């Protein structure tokens, strides 16, 4: 029996997929790259983005047509809004929440019963059983990069976001399990480890009497790095500006294994728009955090998320976002055109910015980003950087990788044994979003 699994959306879904694969393969299924060969096909959905949810409906329509000629079971999980959940019940054989993953084998054996049970029970966003999910050992997709979930859910309720309605409220994973998984990964030679959560820097706030807070979690990982001989980089995503403290930045500056790259979502450079987004932070709070980062970790790269065309965004508010992007000199910004999502508060509001305006603003901001990114990349020329080699580059005869600051690098070599290793590369040229260099033996 063969299975195929598709993960859409963010890194959290990708990480969840590694645990899903473990459960399925323990049932005796083997992986296939070809959907047409599979007896079991699943998809981890993302209700946060319209194009991602559209892809789910496209896929299941195709798979259901195949059932006329093959014995096929389909399932869906991941970030699913209640409105999509109701529709999926009529389209998929099985729909479950990630916290119920340990029960998937029983669902597959009795999939004809699972769907009506789902209709009776409705959509539950409580995370009471998430610990059982975390106890599933992941089937890591890479031999040198890994995602480690440290929490699930979100308590922020940004007006544009559906995550609190798809993943429930914040629940922190026991720090003992996180530290054990990180130590195990390092012992197995992993070079890049990313701590995952919807709001990683609010880790532990739901368990103030029994759990450590995020700065202490980073500190203990940093001490682990000091004790171990291996070179590895630990990242985290995504933090919330409201909870980004100087202590977190101080800890990152102190320990070598804590990667000098910070992803801090801005979303908008206009305070009134941030209030409408219910972000609970203003531009000045964000500026204070960036100032501390630049002072304590001057070598750090800075990534962000920005939404253009949010409901009511005026030209002058978009200009404020452009100004913020230039002020903070982001190395990378993941720019999204706003689209209302059912379940999120802003879905009730009139989407007042035309699509063409959103596209134009997206293009303008991308051009601004090219300037800030390229300026940094050109400053790398002539310097030697440690680079994690990730695989073949698009150009034949080259390998590609990333610096500790997650800057894309390519260099000429045919030695594929370097994949998964950290090497020295001297940078000789730069483009908008990448650099090229020479391998230093």
From TrEMBL:
It comes from the Bacteria. The keyword DNA damage does not apply. GO terms for molecular function: 4 iron, 4 sulfur cluster binding; metal ion binding; tRNA-2-methylthio-N(6)-dimethylallyladenosine(37) synthase activity. Its cofactor is [4Fe-4S] cluster. Gene3D superfamilies: Methylthiotransferase, N-terminal domain, tm_1862 like domain. InterPro entries: Elp3/MiaA/NifB-like_rSAM, Methylthiotransferase, Methylthiotransferase_CS, Methylthiotransferase_N, Methylthiotransferase_N_sf, rSAM, rSAM_horseshoe, rSAM_sf. Residues 140-375 form the Radical SAM core domain. One of its GO terms (cellular component) is cytosol. Residues 378-441 form the TRAM domain. It holds the Pfam family UPF0004. Its EC number is 2.8.4.3. Keywords: 4Fe-4S, Cytoplasm, Iron, Iron-sulfur, Metal-binding, S-adenosyl-L-methionine, Transferase. Residues 1-113 form the MTTase N-terminal domain. Catalyzes the methylthiolation of N6-(dimethylallyl)adenosine (i(6)A), leading to the formation of 2-methylthio-N6-(dimethylallyl)adenosine (ms(2)i(6)A) at position 37 in tRNAs that read codons beginning with uridine. This is tRNA-2-methylthio-N(6)-dimethylallyladenosine synthase. It comes from Ancylomarina salipaludis.
């Amino acid at each position: 029996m063969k299975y195929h699994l598709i993960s859409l959306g963010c890194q959290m879904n990708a990480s969840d997929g590694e645990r899903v694969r473990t459960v399925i393969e323990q049932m005796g299924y083997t992986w296939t790259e070809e959907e047409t060969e599979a007896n079991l096909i699943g998809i981890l959905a993302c209700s946060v983005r319209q194009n991602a949810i559209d892809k789910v409906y496209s896929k299941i329509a195709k798979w259901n047509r195949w059932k006329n000629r093959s014995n096929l079971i389909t399932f869906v999980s991941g970030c699913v809004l209640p409105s999509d959940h109701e529709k999926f019940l009529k389209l998929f054989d099985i729909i479950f929440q990630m916290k119920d993953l340990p029960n998937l084998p029983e669902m597959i054996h009795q999939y004809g019963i699972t769907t009506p049970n789902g209709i009776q029970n409705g959509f539950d966003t409580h995370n009471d059983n998430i610990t059982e999910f975390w106890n599933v050992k992941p089937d890591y997709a890479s031999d040198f990069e890994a995602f480690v979930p440290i929490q699930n859910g979100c308590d922020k309720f940004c007006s544009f976001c559906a995550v609190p309605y798809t993943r429930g409220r914040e629940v922190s994973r026991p720090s003992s399990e996180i530290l054990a998984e990180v130590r195990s990964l390092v012992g197995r030679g992993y070079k890049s480890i990313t701590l995952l959560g919807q709001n990683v820097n609010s880790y532990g706030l739901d368990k103030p009497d029994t759990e450590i807070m995020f700065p202490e979690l980073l500190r203990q990982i940093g001490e682990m790095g000091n004790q171990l001989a291996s070179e590895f980089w630990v990242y985290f995503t995504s933090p919330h500006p409201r909870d980004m403290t100087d202590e977190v930045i101080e800890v990152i500056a102190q320990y070598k294994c804590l990667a000098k790259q910070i992803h801090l979502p801005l979303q908008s450079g206009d305070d009134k728009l941030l209030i409408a987004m219910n972000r609970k932070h203003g531009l000045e709070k964000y500026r204070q955090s960036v100032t501390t980062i630049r002072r304590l970790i001057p070598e750090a790269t800075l990534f962000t998320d920005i939404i253009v065309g949010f409901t009511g965004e005026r030209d002058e508010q978009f200009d404020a976002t452009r100004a913020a992007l230039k002020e903070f000199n982001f190395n990378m910004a993941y720019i999204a055109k706003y689209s209302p999502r059912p379940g999120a508060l802003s879905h009730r509001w009139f989407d007042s910015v035309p699509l063409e305006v959103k596209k134009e603003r997206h293009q303008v901001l991308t051009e601004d980003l090219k300037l800030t990114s390229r300026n940094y990349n050109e400053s790398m020329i002539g310097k030697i950087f440690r680079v994690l080699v990730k695989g073949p580059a698009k150009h034949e005869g080259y390998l590609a990788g990333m610096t500790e600051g997650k800057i894309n690098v390519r260099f000429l070599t045919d030695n594929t044994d370097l994949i998964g290793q950290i090497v020295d590369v001297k940078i000789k040229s730069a483009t908008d979003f990448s650099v090229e260099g020479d391998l230093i033996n």
